[in-house]
Amino acid sequence: METINKDSWKFCVAPMLGVTNRHCRFLYRCLNSHVRLYTEMVTTAALIRNKNIFSKYLLFDNSQHPIALQLGGNDPVDLAKSARIGEKCGYDEININCGCPSSRVLNGSFGAYLMKDVNLVIDCLKAIMDAVSIPVSIKHRIGIDYVDSYQFIRDFVGKIHDIGCNVFIVHARNAVLRGLSPKKNREIPALKYDYVYKLKKDFPDAVIVLNGGISSIDSIRNIENFVDGFMIGRCIMSNPLFLLDIESAFYKEEGVFDYNNLINILIEYAHIEINKGVQLRAIVQPMLNLFKGTNGAGLWRRTLSHTASLSNNKPELIYAAWDAICKRSSIL
C-alpha cells in the first residue's frame, strides 16, 4: 500500500444509499474542489454478477477525484475481486462498510453486523489490502447494540490497526441491529465523540475521521484538533451549499462564488449525460436542495420537479429554474 497523507481525509462526503450516485457527486465536486467523495455502498454480489454494474454504479467523471469506492460484503475472496475492479476503474481508495445497520446488510451478514466478528473483518481487510495498491479504509460504529464500552471499540480498532489498515472512519454512535430503523440509528444512539478522541490518542499514527452529528462550521471548529478529519452526510444532502462554507472556511477560497458558471456547467453536464441515454430526472434529483434556505428555493425545486417539463428531457429546464430563482433571490 502507498503512503497516505492524513490531510486527504480532512473532509469527506459520506456514502449514502440512494443519494451519492455519480450525478450527486458531480454536483458536490462543483461546489468544493477539496472534499473526498464516496460512492454509495456497492455490494460484492452486484459487482461480480451484474453485467451492467459499471454504467450503473462504477462510472464517474474524472473531476470527482479523490473518490473512494465503498464495498459491502463479508467474503474475503469476493471483496478482493471487487476491490481489484474498483482500482482498475480508477478509484483512489477502497472502503469496507462495517457501519450500516439496515435490514439489507443484516440479512447478508455484512455492514455493522461484521463488527460482531473482528477476525472476519481482519480476513476481509487483508484480502483487499493484498489485492490493491491504493489506500484501504474501514467505516464502522463505536459499538453494537447496547454494549457501552470504550474497550470494545479500542480492541476492534487495535486488531485492525495491527494488520496495517490505517484509515478509520468512525460513526460516533452504536449500531442497534434489532429494533431501530436505519433512520433512528442515525438519531437515537447517543453520540460519543470522546470515544473517537480516545481512539486518536491511542492510535496517533492512524487517520481517525469522525462521522455523525456535524452540522455547522462551528461544530467542526470546536473539535477539529481532536481528530484528523470529518465525514459529513445528511447535512450536505439537505444543504449542498454547506460545501461552499467548508471551502471558504478551511481552504481560504477567495472571491464570490460564480453561480452562473455553476448553472452553465450543470447544463453542459446534463447535455452530455442525456446524450448517453440518462433521463433528466436522475440528473437533477441531487440539485433539488441546492438553494435550501434561499428566497426562491421552493420555486427552484418545484421547477426541477415538474413532471411534464422533466418528460421533455431538455437540460434547459435547469436554466429555467435558475432564472426563476434569480427573480426572487439576492444570491447574485
From TrEMBL:
Required co-factors: FMN
Record GO terms (molecular function): flavin adenine dinucleotide binding; tRNA binding; tRNA dihydrouridine synthase activity
Its EC number(s): 1.3.1.-
Domain of life: Bacteria
Alphabetized PROSITE patterns for the sequence: UPF0034 (PS01136)
Entry keyword set: Flavoprotein, FMN, NADP, Nucleotide-binding, Oxidoreductase, RNA-binding, tRNA processing, tRNA-binding
Residues of the active site: 100 (proton donor)
A Pfam family the protein falls into: Dus
Chain ranges of the DUS-like FMN-binding domain: 13-317
Annotated residues for binding of FMN: 70, 139, 171, 211-213, 233-234
Leader peptide range in chain numbering: none
Function: Catalyzes the synthesis of 5,6-dihydrouridine (D), a modified base found in the D-loop of most tRNAs, via the reduction of the C5-C6 double bond in target uridines.
Homology family: Belongs to the dus family.
Protein name: tRNA-dihydrouridine synthase
Native source species: Candidatus Kinetoplastidibacterium stringomonadis TCC290E
